[in-house]
Amino acid sequence: LDQGVQVIPDTPLVRHLEATQAALAQLKAAAGGSVAVQTAVGALDAEVARLGEAIVEHESHLHHQRELNPQIEWIADADGSVIAMGPRWERLTGLTQAQSMGLGWRTIIHPDDLQGYEKAACDDLRRKAGYDISFRGRTAGGEYRWLRARAAARVAPDGRLLFIYGYTEDVHDQVQAAQALRESEENLRFTIELNPQLPFRADPDGNIVEVSTKWMDVVGSDIAALLGFGSLDFVHPDDSRRVLEAWARAVRGRRTYDARYRMRVADGSYRWFRSQAAPRTADDGTIIAWYGVAEDIHEQVQGDAAATEAGERYRLAARATNDVIYDWDVATGDIQWNEAMALIAGKGAGGFGWWFERVHPADRDRVVRSLDRFIARAEDDWRCDYRFRRVDGSWGHIYDRAHLLRDADGTAKRVIGSMSDLTERDEAEQKVQQLRAELIHVSRLSAMGAMAATLAHELNQPLTAAHNWLAAGRAMVATVPDVPAEALEALGEGRGSILKAGEIIRRIRKLVAGGAVARGDEELADVIEEAVALLKSADGGEGVVLEVEVPALRVSVDRVQIQQVLLNLLRNASEAMRLCKEARIRVAAFGAGDSVEIVVSDTGPGLEDGFASEPFTPFRTTKANGLGVGLSICRTIVEAHGGRIWLKSEAGRGTSVHFTVPAAVRSALVDQGPARAA
Amino acid sequence: LIKGLPVRPEPVVYIVDDDGDVRRSLRLMLQVSGFQARAFDGGAAFLGEAEALQPGIVLLDLRMRGVDGLEVLGELARRGIGWPVIVMTGHGEPEVAQDAIAAGAVAFVEKPFEEALLFRCLEEAGAAAR
């Protein structure tokens, strides 16, 4: 459309005007001299000129309007043959007016749409209705674009179809947009349906006003039950208060909302959900609505919980063992250590090089060879012990166990292992061994001592008697006259020999008794605890419940000897209860003036009366394989400590052995030293 | 009494020992040596008659079945019977002897003993008692 240039459109009206003007010119020429005719012709000329201006003006308007209007108007007759077509048609389609008349215009319709167009158009026109059809049409450039044709029928009063007036317009862009919209709507629909998220909308006050229909399937209830604050009814009672508070906080504070809670679902079980919402605000800052989604995160929570639990369990286990646990990346040499490494080697544990530097130089070759074999071969488990420098500079005895993880191609990838520091265990073991060795030694000495004491007593009694008999006999014989001096001498020699025998026994006793008791101040509970440990280390006391109730008491004893007593008593008790259902040993102690009384009682069958009256006599025993010196040794040791030992036994109720040892604060009397009569 | 044997003026010696041989031989030896002696076969037997006896010297074995020597010593002290007590031991453990001394014994002798040692102890005890 050229601006400023008066274009006289070539329309039927304009052509009629031109014809009229031409006829008027002929009329003027033929009018001659008649004044009346000339006046009339002049008036007519002026009128035609005005008419012409008006027509041109009108047609120009029309033309401009057409040019500006994207719609191309057309007129068809009752058969559908186009008789007039708007001028933009040619520009749109490249078809001239002539080519477009009749059914010629239809050549631009896309072959796929032609049938549909004809059918729709015929149907509508038969009903004398207008139509509205979209179809693809070939444009001047050769591409197909969406066109829309709308038509209305002009019907004669007798019902006859006269003309069809219509508009065709290029709607390609709209159709594309609509299609895109439809597609995106479809996408959205799919997205929403396939998405586990459950949308909802709430008013500014937090009342839920709309929820996705998917909620119905999830909670097994109709939508109405979820509106307002109804959804809280589905939240687990333990969580609902928290959820409500969080929601209220978000709404009040205009902040985003994020809560995790359990919600009752259709099958009645509770599942974990996460709900998030954010406010949509207007320009003036007021909240228009809250948009939110809820999502089923049950598996995730369970997984997290399982992972957390597993992680926690690992951490606790790693801490509980005191073992160093490591993860060695073979390729890089990096090693991850657990906390225990800090206890052994201090802070700043490093990689393989760091570790290797701390392995005892004398063990390095062996360790490296062993590791090489382990990594090179198909074996997946490694065991090695070596010395390892600890943070205090001492060497720890490490027992290292590892497992190797390989790539698919068999290359060593990671080594996961644990280092156990056996040093303390070794030391404890050594201590028990040492205690046991000492005890065996003492036990032998004690046994010999007890036997010697027994021998001494058993032999000294008849020797004493023999000596007395001889002395009495000699005294009597001496009064008889004429007894040869040799006879008296012989009786005297016999008496002397007996005394010598007594002296020999005494010397043996002193020899095997190992001299005096080596007493020291000891904490009784420690002494007893070690004795219990010894019992257990000797596989004694199995299936026996041991109750030790010993207050803080210091005693003056030979630790090892008193442990020998305790061990003997504990062993006796535990052996006595071998066939008992309820086997319990109780060790108790209490202070009694200058001494401390210790009681070892059992729940065994008790002792026979015959034995119970003289339990400390040597070589008497209730045991099939016993020597009968155990209690005798106990008595010897206890008495050597200046204590006493006694026993209480009740058939069916158990036995308790009591003995006393001096308390650590010794009486002045004992400290005075030996006071022997000459 | 056997004729010709000395008679001593010392108080009665009460022998307490559960070994019959020792008890009887000791009584005979003391008697032939001029002592008045009575024997009891255990702590209980002696303590049962103690109050009825005239004051004397007790010759007490330490290790006896039933009531042992230390218990006899304790009981005598408890009853206020202050007779001298000489203890006899077949073991010779100094600790036990110390306990006996602490419990009131005046002396102890280790079995078997020379009669001279016993007589000296008895004389000293008798002198102390007087």
Q: Please write the string of helix (H) and strand (E) elements of chain B.
A: EHEHEHEHEH
Rg over C-alpha atoms of chain A, rounded to the nearest angstrom:
61 Å
Secondary structure category of chain A:
alpha+beta
Q: Note the total helix count of chain B.
A: 5
Global shape of chain B: globular
| Overall pLDDT confidence of chain A | 81
Query: Within the largest sheet of chain A, what's the order of strands?
Result: 2-1-5-4-3
Largest beta sheet of chain B: what is the strand line-up?
2-1-3-4-5
Count the helices of chain A. How many?
19
| Main beta sheet strand tally, sense and closure of chain A | 5 strands, antiparallel
Largest interface: A-B, 39 and 44 residues
User: What do the pLDDT scores of chain B average to?
Assistant: 85
What is the beta-strand fraction of chain A?
Answer: 15-25%
Class by helix and strand content of chain B?
A: alpha/beta
N- and C-termini, Cα separation of chain B: 25 Å
Strand content of chain B: 15-25%
Radius of gyration of chain B: 14 Å
What does this molecule look like?
The complex is a heterodimer of chains A (678) and B (130). Chain A is an alpha+beta fold and 678 residues long. In chain A, the strands form five sheets. Chain A has a five-stranded antiparallel sheet, sandwiched between helices. A five-stranded antiparallel sheet of chain A has the order 7-6-10-9-8, with helices on both faces. A five-stranded antiparallel sheet of chain A has the order 12-11-15-14-13. In chain A, strand 1 (72-77) and strand 2 (82-85) form a beta hairpin. Chain A is rod-shaped. The model of chain A is unreliable at 666-678 (pLDDT under 50). With 130 residues, chain B is an alpha/beta fold. Chain B is built from five helices and five strands, in the order E-H-E-H-E-H-E-H-E-H. Chain B has helices at 20-32, 43-49, 69-79, 94-102, 115-129; strands at 12-16, 37-40, 56-61, 85-89, 107-110. In chain B, strands 2-1-3-4-5 form a five-stranded parallel sheet, sandwiched between helices. In chain B, strand 3 (56-61), helix 3 (69-79) and strand 4 form a beta-alpha-beta unit. The longest helix of chain B has 15 residues, at 115-129. Chain B is globular and about 35 Å long. At the A-B interface, helix 13 and helix 14 of A face helix 1, helix 4, strand 5 and helix 5 of B.
